[in-house]
Structure formats: C-alpha cells, structure tokens
C-alpha cells in the first residue's frame, strides 16, 4: 500500500486517564513502574496505529525516567503524539502526569519516546503517512527525535563488540567506582 499523504499531528494525538488502584502498587505502596510502562506501550500502539492506519509493534523505548512517584488514588493521564515519522517507523512521544483528585495538584511523572513500526496484514513493514508540522514545538520534537536516533546509531558504532578495544577506553573509567581486572 503506497501512501503519499500527510497527517496533522493533532489528528492522531491520544489521551487516556486511569485511576490508580491498590492492585497497581508495588511493595513500597507506590504505583509499579512496570504497570505504567504497560499503559505507555498501549497508548503508543494506539497513537501509532491511528497515524499509520495499520497494526504497529514496539521497536524500542527511549529515555524512561521516573521523575515523580505515582500514589494510589491518583488519576494518571497520558498524552501521546507522533513526534517523528520515517518510512515505516514513528516515534511516539508520551507525557505522563498524575493528579491528586482531592487537591487538584498535578505532577509530571515521566516523558518517554516509543519507536513503533507499522505492519501490513502479512507482518511486513508498511509505509506510513508523513506528518504536517504546524508549530515550533512540533518542529522541535521532530528534530529532537532525529538527534536521538543519530546518537543511538553513533553509540552502537562506537561500542560495536567486534571493533571494541578496552585499552582505548581505560582512561575514561578512572573517575568511576570500578576496578578493572582484565
């Protein structure tokens, strides 16, 4: 299926909200990070599928930092939008906030980037529509995704196991809590 069309980012945004229950808590009484990641994967799938019009799979998850804990009884809201599109892949940016529904206080809990790949009915990669960038923030997010991808590619090249030489990096480790015993 050949797609030469473009979609507006605002047309494929998704927002979900869910009340956090005691069954979602970890041993310290906070909402389990794995549960939040599961919800994030669901909203990334929904956003990418809405944009591409196809089934999508998660290829990678970048920069998952749990900034603030989420409490039982808080309302968690996740907002997802397409930040970047390639030929068959999309980067979905997700912002997670929690709200104390009694006080109204809102906390930013997490921002993350899911790379999703569109699939056709046979499981092959499928072309995705382009995106229409309509403001400075959307342009910034698109460019950030390009830079994250370049950084990831460079890291893979720099630390490729076949070409890695420990002696080239020994000096880098001098100020770290590590003892080299090669």
UniProtKB/TrEMBL annotation:
<protein>
    <submittedName>
        <fullName>Acyl-CoA thioesterase</fullName>
    </submittedName>
</protein>
<comment type="similarity">
    <text>Belongs to the acyl coenzyme A hydrolase family.</text>
</comment>
<feature type="domain" description="HotDog ACOT-type">
    <location>
        <begin position="10"/>
        <end position="122"/>
    </location>
</feature>
<dbReference type="InterPro" id="IPR006683">
    <property type="entry name" value="Thioestr_dom"/>
</dbReference>
<dbReference type="InterPro" id="IPR029069">
    <property type="entry name" value="HotDog_dom_sf"/>
</dbReference>
<dbReference type="InterPro" id="IPR033120">
    <property type="entry name" value="HOTDOG_ACOT"/>
</dbReference>
<dbReference type="InterPro" id="IPR040170">
    <property type="entry name" value="Cytosol_ACT"/>
</dbReference>
<dbReference type="Pfam" id="PF03061">
    <property type="entry name" value="4HBT"/>
</dbReference>
<keyword id="KW-0378">Hydrolase</keyword>
